[in-house]
Amino acid sequence: AFGDRLVLAGATFERAAAFDEAVFSGPVEASGVAFSGGNTVDDAVSFADATFEDRVDFHRAWVATATFANAAFEGVVAFREAWFDDTTTFEGAAFRDRAVFLRSRFDHDACFADATFAAPTTFRGSEFHGGEHAVDDADFQGATFAATADFKRVEFRYARFDGVHVAADLGFAESVFTGTARFEGVAVDGETTFSGAVFEQEALFAA
């Protein structure tokens, strides 16, 4: 466990980095960190099942293969302008305060399936380019947003939002979907907007 502030700002990890089940009691400052271990699971950075009890800052981080599966974020999470170069998963992660993925870039598959977001969340201006196969490039299937979810001006290839529940407003204004966009079974309690959005392939909204 890390009882006080952990500073990784500007650090470079050239091979695997494992923080599985770690507990971070203080802030994590990782602005500009580089996890460049490689593009295989064995060389990934892993924060699987980790608990972050304070704020987390990965501003302009560069990350190869990474997993934050089932991680718990108790404080504000900032991945502003972060660059995820390979497969990334936040599957089942719990964001209990604001989650900020402003202008982040995902160059391979990104999974947020079954993640929970308890406070306002933004992916505004982010890019999801996906991997070799145009499927599950941006996977939010079954995710739950208890507050506003902002995807304004986001670039998607294949996007999957099946079964997502948003208890407030959901916004995709001016976003672009170059591949299939799936929104089957989505439930939004507030306003939903796609004003100015572009769907270049099929868009599925069936109940």
Q: Summarize the biggest pleated sheet.
A: 9 strands, parallel
Distance between the termini: 45 Å
Low-confidence stretches: none
* Mean pLDDT reading: 94
User: How many whole angstroms does the radius of gyration measure?
Assistant: 16 Å
What amount of the residues lies in strands?
25-35%
**What level of helicity do the residues show?**
under 10%
Give the helix/strand class: mainly beta
Number of separate strands? 35
Helices, by number, come to 0
Can you describe what's shown?
The chain is an all-beta fold and 207 residues long. 0% of the residues lie in helices and 34% in strands. The protein contains no helices and 35 strands.
List keywords for this structure.
207 residues; 9-stranded parallel beta sheet; 35 strands
Short description:
The chain is an all-beta fold. It has strands at 6-7, 12-13, 17-18, 23-24, 28-29, 34-35, 45-46, 51-52, 56-57, 62-63, 66-67, 72-73, 77-78, 83-84, 88-89, 94-95, 99-100, 105-106, 110-111, 116-117, 121-122, 127-128, 138-139, 144-145, 149-150, 155-156, 159-160, 165-166, 170-171, 176-177, 181-182, 187-188, 192-193, 198-199, 203-204.
